[in-house]
Amino acid sequence: MTRGLRVSVHSASDVGRVREGNEDSFYAGSTVFAVADGMGGHQAGEVASRTALEPIAELDGQMFASQQDADESLVEAITEANVAVVAEGDADPELAGMGTTLTAAILRDGRVHLAHVGDSRAYLLRDGESITQLTTDHTLVEQLVRDGRLSRDEAANHPQRSVVTRAIGVERQVQVDSLPPIVLQPGDQILLCSDGLTGPVDDAEIARLLERSDGDAAVQALIDAANDAGGPDNITVVLLRVRASRPAADSPVEPVDAGQATGPLPPSEQQAESATRPEAPATQIRTRTELASGDDWATRMGHLGDEQGVDAKGPSMRRREKSRRGPKVAAVVLGVVLLLGVVAGGGYALLSRAYFVGDLDGEVAIYNGIPQNIAGVPLHWVREGGSGVRTDDLPPFLAERVREGDVTAGSLVEAREIIESYRERVEDAEADEPEPDPTPAPGDTGDDAEDADEAALP
């Protein structure tokens, strides 16, 4: 006998304790949900993330004839999001360099379909204790971990953990990870979130906080935890909670009525029947992110009901071998390619999308690339020097970060703004220094200085 499901939706975002502006967006509809992390400066990143969600939102409430149809439609929407963001950048020079991550989900017939680009994550919490990261971060640090060059502990504090290797709006084509759908069970929780949450808060703590009985309280607890850990970035959370359509009489939580289901599963797949229209209005809110890490869900997902693996392109990507739009500059470097040794030729173009502020002969300068070498080959070069800001004039902790190349920037404009903030800091410090006292010391009439001045005259 098939048991129906209801899904309640809970979502919120917070600016965090460091950021001044929001560059991310999220969408919480009836059957479609997504988180996008903008990059490229406050205005540009905000436009990128908002634009990327528009094709995703168009899928909300649609009926899909099959699992393949749902998968292809989701990947197709992300592909269209890439074309739209590139087009926005082409149309407005002020938006050049923008991009965004995008993690999206569709509910259909008792399953959740997922696809993503970048480092915003999707998690599954099952049985109240087992939390699984479903998505794999597209970051340089993640690739270094997979190649055995970094440990997980090293990756957590790596200065380049914010460098993503894949993003929406950066190239003519985008590679989309499409995950096999997961059969949902009563009690499951699906979490979509920005790395403003996952950077400061580890997976075990996320799982513990998700155990709160009230969904809104759980979302707020996650945001509070990230802020308590410093709130280095904006924090965005979209939480789906799955309940049986006819809960037991002693159930402490009354599920939200999910409305009309899309139809029964085939007899061989009658594990769950999902409700696809929770009583929650579509919500679209801006937010932002930066950190990354994660592990490979594919080796640990066999218990979820379907054969697991990542279709890196997706069916629709194989049909789209060309796109009409050209690449735009953003703070993205294809670390996978670089780590395979392809540094020459195309590697140069890829590195040119990453920026950091470093030291050049004692002065603060802007670099392209990342402050690392591979096989003795430097992966960076000077983009702009001659700032006139001396590294030694900065506070010691900041001077050390500059010398180490730890100050990353999302665009050339952002890097210049960082240097200007350093310049103002140095000037303010110099203005606060007390001027020398012109009053002569006792017994000093100043005659010696006057004699010296006279002797210097012709």
Structural overview:
This protein is of the alpha+beta class and 458 residues long. Helices cover 29% and strands 23% of the residues. The chain has helices spanning 42-57, 67-91, 140-146, 152-156, 195-198, 203-209, 215-228, 315-319, 335-339, 346-351, 396-404, 412-432, 447-456; strands at residues 5-14, 24-28, 32-39, 99-108, 111-117, 121-126, 130-133, 177-183, 189-193, 235-244, 283-287, 355-360, 363-374, 377-384, 407-409. The strands form 3 sheets. The protein has a 6-stranded antiparallel sheet. A 5-stranded antiparallel sheet has the order 1-10-9-6-7. The chain has a 4-stranded antiparallel sheet with strand order 14-13-12-15, sandwiched between helices. β4 and β5 (111-117) form a beta hairpin. α1 packs antiparallel against α2 (67-91). The longest helix is centred in the first third of the chain and has 25 residues, at 67-91.
Helix-strand makeup class: alpha+beta
Helix-strand pattern: EEEHHEEEEHHEEHHHEEHHHEEEHEHH
Shape: globular
Mean pLDDT: 75
Number of extended strands: 15
Helical amount among residues, as a percent range?
Answer: 25-40%
Unreliable segments of 5+ consecutive residues: 247-281, 283-349, 448-458
CA gyration radius, whole angstroms: 26 Å
